[in-house]
Amino acid sequence: MNTLRTIGYAICVTLVVTSIFLMLLPSGKMAKIVKFAVHLFLLIAILTPFIGQPIDFSSSAEAFTWEQNETAKSLNELADEQLLRSFDKSLRLQAEAVFKKYEIVPEKIEFSMNVQSDRSIDISKLEILLKGSDKDRCGNAVRELNEMFGVTALLAFTDGT
């Protein structure tokens, strides 16, 4: 049944393409030669399914599916990047709020994250750069951040006040 459908599809497509081409054919010296070539094409296209293997239109569909998969893959990668950026910004704001509660202004907050196969985000590292003058006051804030994010924060201090 599938072979019959493929043959019918091939014949219909061939007839449509040939008809359109013949309508666009200009009149003149070359008209008879072009008309002969078009009719030869039509004849070969109609006989091909009966003589040999039917015309395989699925190869072009497979190529389109492959391109579609590549596009979907790149869209997933883009979505992961945007998700990480958004999550990083949210985590940074949460960390800054904790420091603000203890009246500490961090110089820099860095998160290292990975998107897992189940689309969950894993925080692997938290690095915080603080002023040297905040060294004695940052203990409670760092403990709160460690509990909040589930990682041990790596602290660094600047020499300035």
From TrEMBL:
Mind telling me what this protein is named? Stage III sporulation protein AF
- Which residue ranges traverse the bilayer? 6-26, 33-52
Q: Which InterPro entries match?
A: Spore_III_AF (IPR014245)
| Keywords, in A-Z order | Membrane, Transmembrane, Transmembrane helix
| Pfam families per the UniProt record, alphabetical | Spore_III_AF
The record lists the organism as: Fumia xinanensis
